[in-house]
UniProtKB/TrEMBL annotation:
SMART domains to which the protein is assigned, alphabetical: S4
Native source species: Nocardioides dubius
Coiled-coil segments on the chain, per record: none
Enzyme class: isomerase
Family: Belongs to the pseudouridine synthase RluA family.
E.C. number(s) listed in UniProt: 5.4.99.-
Entry-linked Pfam families: PseudoU_synth_2 (PF00849), S4 (PF01479)
Keywords in alphabetical order: Isomerase, RNA-binding
Record flagged with keyword Isomerase: yes
SUPFAM superfamilies, alphabetized: Alpha-L RNA-binding motif (SSF55174), Pseudouridine synthase (SSF55120)
Protein name per UniProt: Pseudouridine synthase
Residues of the RNA-binding S4 domain: 16-80
Role, per record: Responsible for synthesis of pseudouridine from uracil.
InterPro entries reported for this sequence: PsdUridine_synth_cat_dom_sf, PsdUridine_synth_RluA-like_CS, PsdUridine_synth_RluC/D, PsdUridine_synth_RsuA/RluA, RluA_PseudoU_synthase, S4_RNA-bd, S4_RNA-bd_sf
């Protein structure tokens, strides 16, 4: 939807810049007005203008104003790469690829899991905020793997409680730099927002209780493949905890990984994958487990590490 506004410049705005005149006449911000001018949506007496051009009384100002999309609106669109692992009346289990957010959020304009499910015709539980309906867990945009979304209200209620009560088994594999000591251990360190960066997290004394269990699967010259079980589910928890013990996920430049090693193994994101998810099915009560294999970029990076001498 777009709005077309055509008005004559009044005497009181004589000599004003076009962006300032638009701001006063249409109630727009100067930034929004400048954006419309830059996008070629503004003309003055039929000629295109720059934001610092001046207006004269009686000139015809013609502005096309596209409707601004709500950043939290769920846009139905089928996303390449999302695989359906399991689907029944209550839940849908997916294999999320890298580069897909779980739900819309401020500042994110890319594809989302909830948008894909809407586009593919799935009916999702209506519990939760409108952009997060049916969502009981999240994976970072840069983390791939298995996750569950609820289709029925009953399933949402049961699984929301299961995640809250930590009865869901969440298993990840992470390729981390170096060799953690000990090779099997628990990291119990509170996590909060990074004091100097809005989009990062860190171990903070006043952070939320966070517990990560890890054990070695494979040791290689430059890196170790670890199996990780989350007791809590904080944002970026594995990435923050592994970085805190000086063994960041390979490729995780945000949390201190070596860019040279990341380039060598061809990674543009952290080597972290949700391999397994186990829980009591909300309908049957049976314990169910769903798994996801490594995507191509992680498998390739691991092969390079295995072959390094």
């Amino acid at each position: 939807m777009t709005e077309q506004r055509v008005v004559l410049v009044p005497d009181g705005l004589a000599g004003e810049r076009v962006d300032a005149a638009m701001a006063r006449m249409f109630g727009l911000s100067r930034t929004r007005a400048a954006d419309l001018i830059a996008a070629g949506q503004v003309s003055l007496d039929g000629r295109s203008v720059g934001k610092s051009d001046r207006v004269s009384p009686g000139e015809m100002l013609d502005v096309t104003i596209p409707a601004e999309r709500d950043p939290l609106e769920v846009v139905p669109e089928v996303v390449d790469g999302i695989k359906i692992i399991h689907d029944d009346e209550s839940i849908v289990v997916i294999d999320k690829p890298v580069g897909v957010a779980v739900h819309p959020s401020m500042g994110w304009t890319g594809p989302t899991v909830v948008g894909h499910l809407a586009g593919a015709g799935f009916r999702i539980a209506t519990s939760g905020a409108s952009e997060r309906q049916g969502i009981v867990q999240r994976l970072d945009v840069g983390t791939s793997g298995v996750m569950v979304i609820c289709k029925s209200e009953y399933a949402y209620s049961r699984l929301k409680n299961a995640f809250r009560n930590r009865t869901v088994d969440k298993t990840y594999h992470a390729l981390v730099q170096g060799h953690p000591d000990p090779l099997v251990g628990t990291i119990d360190a509170p996590i909060g927002r990074h004091p100097k960066s809005d989009w990062k997290f860190a171990v903070m004394a006043d952070g939320k209780h966070s517990v990560t269990h890890y054990e070695l699967l494979e040791a290689h010259r430059f890196a170790s493949l670890m199996e990780i079980h989350l007791e809590t589910g904080r944002t970026h928890q594995i990435r923050v905890h592994m970085s805190a013990i000086k063994h960041p996920c390979v490729g995780d430049l945000t949390y201190g990984a070596d860019p040279v090693l990341a380039k060598r193994v061809g990674l543009e994101r952290q080597w972290l994958h949700a391999v397994r998810l186990g829980f009591e099915h909300p309908d049957s009560g049976d314990y169910v487990t769903y798994e996801s294999t490594y995507p191509d970029d992680l498998a390739s990076a691991l092969d390079i590490i295995r072959d390094a001498h």
